[in-house]
Amino acid sequence: MKTLFACLLIFCLSSFAFANTSIGNVDAHKIINDSTHQITGKWKGVAETANGSIEFVAIFKVSADSLTGEYQSSNGNSPLRDGKVKGYTIEFTHDYSGIEVKATGKLEGGVIKIHWKTDQYGEGDYQLTKLDN
Question: What phi and psi values does residue 126 have, to the nearest 5 degrees?
Fold first, then answer.
């Protein structure tokens, strides 16, 4: 009887510990899946520079912790390089008229707030709004 009770107790405690671990993993997967769904898609933005406004469309595709896609503007299309995603934060590099642009951003309240930086023209901020769901 003692052996049966001990086995049941160990089984119950093991089940509880496993359930708590699984719940934690589900939450992490939920955040990853949620950010993937929310970031993937077409976004529109306007960056203000010393040379005027630049309108563009950003196309993002998230797969695990990788970000791919491109920026499209009147100066042509530029594929994203070195794209990364961590939760709701993104970072990537792309070229604009031969200038390397490094960008970091965060999805907040339905917009992605981007901070960009170049060696030639300094840095700035802009927002992206989603064009599709």
Answer: -155, 170
| Domain locations in the chain as residue ranges | 36-130
- In CATH, the number for domain 36-130 is 2.40.128.20
DSSP per residue, 67-129: EEEEEEETTEEEE-EEEEEETTEEEEEEEETTEEEEEEEEEETTEEEEEEEETTTEEEEEEEE
Q: Which of 126, 4, 102, 122 is nearest to 53 (CA)?
A: 126
What are 60's two structure tokens?
């993002």
Angle of CA points 123, 114, 43, to nearest 5°: 130
**Tokens standing for 19?**
């359930």
Look up the pTM and report it: 0.71
> Hey, what are 95's tokens?
């070229």
Classify 49 as helix, strand or coil: strand
The predicted-structure confidence for 52-92, as pLDDT tens digits, reads as follows 888 999 999 999 899 999 999 988 999 999 999 999 999 99
